[in-house]
User: Fold this.
Amino acid sequence: MRTASALAHPNIAFIKYWGDLDPGLRIALNSSLSMNLDGLHTRTQVRFDESLSGDVLILDGQPVTGPALDRVTRFLDHVRSLAGVRFPAEVTSANNFPTGAGIASSASAFAALSLAAASALGLSLTEIDLSRLARLGSGSACRSVPGGFVEWQAGSDHASSYAYSIASPSHWDLVDCIAIVDDVHKPTGSSEGHTLSGTSPLQAARVADTPRRLELCRRAVLERDFDLLASIVEVDCNMMHAVMLTSSPPLVYWQPATLEIIQSVQAWRGQGVSVCYTIDAGPNVHVITLSSEATRIHERLRSIPSIANVLLASPGGPARLTDPFTGTG
Ligand code: DP6
Assistant:
């Protein structure tokens, strides 16, 4: 039975990955730092089967073909070559977070797929090996392999580009209150955004300053210094969005509600609440706070009419093998 199932959490980057040194291997131009999101996950089962005529992908109960299947096949080719086999596979995967909520699922998807596929073929990989493998599917997926607070050392080649945990999930009781704004338009995907990043005159300055921001962010996490974290997370997010806005063509991910939440978060911090924001390649806002403030922040966010939903996530664990799974939830 060449079958295995795995689960992985998405992650939110405090220091962002935006732009590749090597797009084929997804080797980032800068190192990044993130927190896994407990409660949200992708579950994936992989079954390698000689009798299949080609790879099959079933996402949230629906067969998928086209670019998404091609991306999975390219990724599985790496795993097959590591194991020295050529069998097709059936990949069955489901997210427990709402589809269309605009939360990037490629990180949890490729982290879970890496672990399930490697395990199904009997490959014994270290966490670092798995992180490198997941990176080939989606850059940020390498950060969903280890648990808790995770740093992706960008490196300069396949061997040196991987992620590792800098602190366990229980190290710091942060909560990510994910404010889902309504009217989510289909954005330009991250892969295309990484390619465009080099057209912005601001990208070189953003990349050159990343070691400084990363060092401050790492210190903020290790010392549980929320004020330091807030200042560096927001500036890092704004620098990435400045690059997006000045790329050619420009990428504008924010909606009016995005700015409304940013301004609310800044006002709350001005009132002494431990809270800050960060935004990925979409309009939703990740509002980071301490667990002691989470109920209050949740209520405040829910009272903003342009917010459709709020999801709460604490620091999550590593990707892990699970019992067999058939595809729903
Ligand atoms: C804005 O990892 O989604 O979320 O490698 O093309 O799948 P691909 O890109 P992806 O890029 C993540 C971009 C980001 C910032 C981050 O998570 O670091």
About this structure: The longest helix spans residues 203-222. DSSP finds eight helices and 16 strands in the chain. Helices lie at 67-83, 106-120, 127-137, 190-196, 203-222, 226-245, 256-270, 291-302.
